Amino acid sequence: MEQNMVRGTKALLLSLMEEGVDTIFGYPGGTIMPLYDELYNYTDKINHILVRHEQGAVHAAEGYARTTGKVGVCMATAGPGATNFVTGIADAMMDSTPIICITAQVNADKLGTNFFQEADMISITLPITKWSYQITKASEIPEVMAKAFYIAQNGKPGPVVISIAKNAQVEMIDFKYDKKELVKDIEIRRTLAENCEIEQAAKLINEAKRPLVIAGHGVAIANAEERLREFCEKGNLPVAATLMGVSVMNSFHPNYIGAVGMHGNIAPNRMTQEADVIVAVGMRFSDRVTGETRGYAPKAKVIHIEIDQSEINKNIKAHLPLRGDAAEILESLMEKIEYVERKEWFDLANELILEEDKRIFNPKLNSTEEVLMGQVVAKITDLTGGNAIIVTDVGQNQMFSARYSKFVQHKSFVTSGGLGTMGFGLPAAVGTKVGNPDRQVIAILGDGGFQMNMQELGTIMQSGIDIKIVLLNNSFLGMVRQWQELFFNKRYAFTHLDNPDFQKVAQAYNIPSGKISRTSDIEAEVKKMLESEGAYFLEVEVKEEENVFPMIPAGATLDEMIYENPNK
Amino acid sequence: MEAQRFTVTALGKNRIDILNRITSLYLQKNIPVESFVLSQSEDGDSKYQICANTSQEAIERIVSQMNNIIDIKSVQYSAIA
User: Of the residues A33, A63, A184, A384, which has the maximum number of CB atoms within 10 A of its CB?
Assistant: First the structure.
């Protein structure tokens, strides 16, 4: 596309549209006024969602990107507007989410003068971006935008910050956008495992008596969910997911045995310790998954299917690294995989799944004294048939959501895994719904995290975002309180929250609301929420001192799982 | 972990942020840098040479992360006496 003599701001928006962008989450300000003025010409082509805090914009862009596979775009003014993006950028970096953060900057000749609302966003975000660029002339715009999108999406995705100086916004250029031409000098190396490596891996798997596939976020990023299913069916392999990989597999699939990790299910964690071969796909052996690495998977040879070479052999030794895209590698590997019975191994899985049902799930689900968090999550999954997209905040609400939800569709679980950002849930749900208007989107939050970005109720009200918000209210910073109970002698230092009347808060934003106070309320209230039209706020008064079990405490190995408070 | 002196040599473009992204990898791991030389090589590439005292494990991690920096073409390291 070519146009003569266009303003920098128009060149920027034309570049975005060339890249297929039709949604921007943003918040205006002085230094970004020219760009917003230009945006006003494109309201029919670009849907701009006005947030209430820039952090809301960046988390919304994340929710959007994670569930649509497209690049999320957010926009903010210079100085504090830009710095308010920082937490979200760090979150996107940790969880490999492709977003472009466009931040305004003072005039190029005023850089470094402590001009009004000047902040060195490039320097500030260096360690948490895949790439960043300070645009000082309008002529740089097309090339920088093309590169930004290419980098954000290719290889392991990640956030890119584009800082645009005010003068560059108003200068005139002849606009020409030829994507191939503009990115020709960058190369994101696309390694592919050698044929002999694939054969070696297939042999290892075929000869394994106790193989375990652990699938992470990378499977979703590579859109390899179907490949994974075919692969595990062909070879008759059990599959576990990491927290970020929950929903890459249909929860009811006979080969799916649950989630690994600190608050994962019993079967995957115990079987990791017994496995003779582990096929790790699109996961990075986070400390949340491995526990103490010295005691991790002691009997297993590890096949690590991973696109980022710096993740291989970082935490866990890979006996056979297979570098590349998950979908492509699973496809090649699948050709050489054979079906092996492995009855005893699957019997063990079923035995451990039943043990967890008996020991943890059934007692919790059937308890009627006080409302337990898992009961509400289970009811939601039940009444939505596992079809909703669940977006969580961080902490106990996150763990209970992962443990009690079932999923039948892909890309249905959005959570802040690597950075564990409280306040992520509500704005991420906004972005998720905007990207997936035809799916039910339900945010499950704790009272701590909800209040961190509560102002986004304004975004929901103004933009008519149809999300269901479930607030698991225990008046505590739950997960921290759990650790204080288990490891700090119940010294609840600053974890109790005096909360406002959340019903009145919802009402103030014209959002219909409901409340669950007893287990007998659960069915009716969840049903009412799901049948409502438009945004709905369901507050749940849960047991204040509930704990998430099982748990692998920090510093412990997967063999040292605890099922109740050890001090009892 | 035994500490040794390692030199890391990276070849790539000369863009202002690359310099900072390289030194950030040392800053992040709290590894003090002894010397840092940026020079132009004959074929137009820039050569970044960093010398620091650290463990083999740390330097391998730095090298693998440096390979991910956009517009860095190649990274090598060697131990020096």
Answer: A63
Plot region of A432 (φ>0 → left; ψ -120 to 50 → alpha; else → beta): alpha
| CB-based contact, B61 to chain A, within 8 Å | yes
pLDDT in tens, A112-159: 999 999 999 999 999 999 999 999 999 999 999 999 999 999 999 999
Beta bridge partners of A175: A3
- Which structural domain range is residue A391 located in? 370-542
- Determine the residue of chain B that is closest to A313 in CA distance: B61
How many domains would you assign to chain A?
A: 3
Q: Mean of the pLDDT values across residues A22-43?
A: 98
Q: Give backbone dihedrals phi and psi of A508, rounded to 5 degrees, phi first.
A: -60, -30
- Within-domain flag for A506: yes
Q: Is A545 part of the annotated catalytic residue set?
A: no
Instruction: Report the amino acid identity of residue A112.
Output: G
Q: Based on the residue annotation, tell me whether A54 is a catalytic residue of this protein.
A: yes
A185 min Cα distance to partner chain B (Å)? 9
Residues A177, A201, single domain; the answer is no
**CB contact (8 A) between residue B17 and residue A314:** no
A213 and A78 in a single domain? The answer is no
Active site annotation includes A143: no
The nearest CA of chain B is from the CA of A157 a distance in Å of: 12
What is the average pLDDT across B47-68? 96
Active site residue A551: no
Is residue A568 in a domain?
no
Distances, alpha carbon A8 to alpha carbons A3, A13, A173, in Å: 12, 9, 7
| Cα–Cα separations (whole angstroms), residue A54 to A21, A204, B10 | 19, 49, 37
Nearest to A310 among B24, B64, B70 (CB): B64
Q: How many alpha carbons lie under 13 Å from residue A558 in its C-beta half-sphere?
A: 26
On whether both A386 and A431 belong to a single domain, the answer is yes
